[in-house]
């Protein structure tokens, strides 16, 4: 079975935040290996970049455009929820 991996908002936040620590490097590497993100992850990332990191709306528009061009944006469904529960159990991830 081939599993599709989607990015969590924390990975996106680390990748786009202004800090230049090891988390940014790791996040950018992870991003190159994934091709799916959820609309929820984009929303959460946008909120944090605006509120915590004080990004300007124009900066955020560029990031959202990049994400729309580079990734498949998935919608969350009850099937997504079911699969999340299975993966959390399989890999001992927190929900």
Residues in β-strands, percent: 5-15%
- Provide the spatial order of strands within the biggest beta sheet: 1-2-3
Shape: globular
Work out the helix count: 5
Helix content: 55-70%
Whole-number mean pLDDT: 88
Output the structural class: mainly alpha
Helix and strand string, N-terminal first?
EHHEHHEH
Distance between the termini: 22 Å
Provide the number of structural domains.
Answer: 1
Taking pLDDT < 50 over at least 5 consecutive residues as the criterion, the unreliable ranges are none
**Quaternary organisation of the protein chains:** single chain
Number of strands: 3
For the largest beta-sheet, the strand count, sense and barrel status come to:
3 strands, parallel
Gyration radius, to the nearest Å?
14 Å
Structural key phrases:
3 strands, 95 residues, globular, 3-stranded parallel sheet, mainly alpha, single chain
Describe this protein's structure.
The protein has 95 residues and is mainly alpha-helical. It has one domain (6-91). Helices cover 63% and strands 8% of the residues. It has helices at 9-16, 22-32, 39-51, 57-70, 78-91; strands spanning 6-7, 36-38, 72-74. Helix 1 (9-16) crosses helix 2 and helix 3 packs antiparallel against helix 4 (57-70). The two termini are 22 Å apart.
